[in-house]
Design goal:
Number of helices: 14
Strand content: 15-25%
Number of domains: 2
Structural class: alpha/beta
CATH architecture of the largest domain: 3-Layer(aba) Sandwich
Bound molecules: ligand C6P
Helix content: 25-40%
Number of strands: 17
Distance between the termini: 30 Å
């Protein structure tokens, strides 16, 4: 792929960056792969894969359990990642950074644990744009207790209605759970403002940061969120690792999520005491290899600069929308100002799967269907959408190829 002037943001050389991703050299159906499914999972650069190799070849040992050198070294690497995460999100202390398997597990941890402190009749506020990961865990509490979800509406551009949000608070509101960035619409929600509103009502807030952490500077102290969950695999890191940030106040108050090794203080058959934070919430052997490698992914993002990554992705988004806009019958979902690098659309009554399958034949990988956000699909009166989502290694040439392919497929299927 050639490089356009705009593929060079603040000295980021995108072609050089691409060399770190062998997968981007693949061909699909005889055409160069154009990978635009980054909101589902991003690709992984050599530095991260090498960090995994290093762990397996030289440092593999269980962590926090051994006095021997290997165990100490592996433990140091895991704890180094915890400190890197702390700095990345500007958390006050490493005790507030919990390793999970991903955003989903982080939200389930809070729903399950905080959920034990809820009573019949309590209410939880979510938005209509939430991923199923930030809906279903809250509904599962409802199987044990009569807890109701109250839903913040959005306008057609995909922005939350802040007045309606504030109106949803009642004496029964106990929790707010919000996406920072929508995985479908790309809307960057005014979470700082929404957290402040919730706190005025004395209600804690969890932010689902799965789609924000790879693209937006996250500062949990500035946001003043009570919990913040995200996944490594969308941040150029390995799969199977996630982070849950929680304010110490809540983490100390909440009961453990799972029981097992390393989360205990003292165990007898009569009674168990629990370990200090963060280990109270980290039962069992963690995915220490991938946690160590996630540290390399954070270094990678910090090295490029998240603002540079975002600027480049915004440029790709602008080009994509401009190019797609001339397709007859195209309908975009999510047009909020300042949205992140995600474009979701439908053309006429073409089924999103049909379009995705034909785009794949042309080498273009996009996501189709409901994007794990069925209530949002219902809000727009559709069952699915086509979604292209960008990462730092995508180029304007790739966007041009995607736009041309979509024009072609639309003409074939209309
Ligand atoms: N969204 C997408 O294609 P996990 O699977 O735990 O890493 O992340 C879940 C999740 C939670 N919240 C949001 C806003 C998300 O976008 C996701 C994952 C992917 O949109 C896969 S469904």
């Amino acid at each position: 792929m050639t490089q356009s002037p705009c593929d060079n943001h603040n000295n980021m050389d995108i072609n050089k960056i691409r060399e770190d991703y062998p997968i981007l050299q693949r061909h699909i159906e005889g055409r160069p792969l154009v990978y635009l499914d980054n909101a589902a999972t991003s690709q992984t650069p050599r530095s991260v894969v090498e960090a995994i190799d290093q762990m397996y070849y030289h440092y593999k040992a269980n962590v926090h359990r051994g006095v021997h050198t290997l165990s100490q070294e592996a433990t140091d690497m895991v704890e180094l990642t915890r400190e890197k995460v702390r700095a990345f999100i500007n958390a006050g202390s490493v005790e507030e950074v919990i390793f999970t398997r991903g955003t989903t597990e982080g939200i389930n941890l809070v729903a399950s644990s905080f959920g034990q402190m809820l009573e019949n009749g309590d209410e939880i506020i979510v938005t209509v744009m939430e991923h199923h990961s930030n809906i279903v865990p809250w509904q599962l509490i409802g199987q044990r207790k009569r807890v109701t979800l109250r839903v913040v509406p959005i306008d057609d551009s995909g922005q939350v209605d802040l007045e309606a949000y504030e109106d949803l608070f009642s004496d029964n509101t106990r929790f707010v759970a919000l996406a920072h960035v929508s995985n479908v619409l790309g809307t960057v929600n005014p979470v700082k403002q929404m957290i402040a509103i919730a706190h005025r009502h004395g209600v804690p807030v969890l932010i689902d940061g799965a789609q924000a952490a790879p693209h937006v500077k996250v500062d949990v102290l500035d946001l003043d969120c009570d919990f913040y969950a995200f996944s490594s695999h969308k941040m150029y890191g390995p799969a199977g690792v996630g982070i849950l940030y929680g304010k110490r106040y809540w983490l100390e108050k909440m009961p453990p999520y799972q029981g097992g090794g390393e989360m205990i203080g003292q165990v007898s058959f009569e009674r168990t005491t629990f370990a200090d934070l963060p280990f109270k919430f980290e039962a069992g052997t963690p995915d220490f290899v991938d946690i160590a490698a996630f540290g390399a992914a954070i270094d990678y993002i910090q090295g490029l600069g998240i603002e540079n990554i975002a600027a480049h992705e915004h440029e790709l988004l602008r080009a994509a929308v401009e190019g797609l806009n001339t397709i007859d019958g195209i309908r975009f979902f999510g047009t909020a100002p300042g949205k992140s690098g995600v474009v979701s659309f439908l053309v006429g009554d073409i089924n999103s799967y049909d379009m995705g399958l034909l785009l794949d034949k042309l080498g273009i990988a996009v996501r189709t269907g409901h994007h794990c956000a069925q209530p949002l699909m219902a809000r727009y009166g559709v069952t699915g959408m086509v979604r292209a989502s960008f990462a730092v290694y995508n180029t304007l040439d790739e966007v041009a190829a995607f736009v041309a392919a979509t024009h072609r497929v639309a003409a074939m299927l209309q």
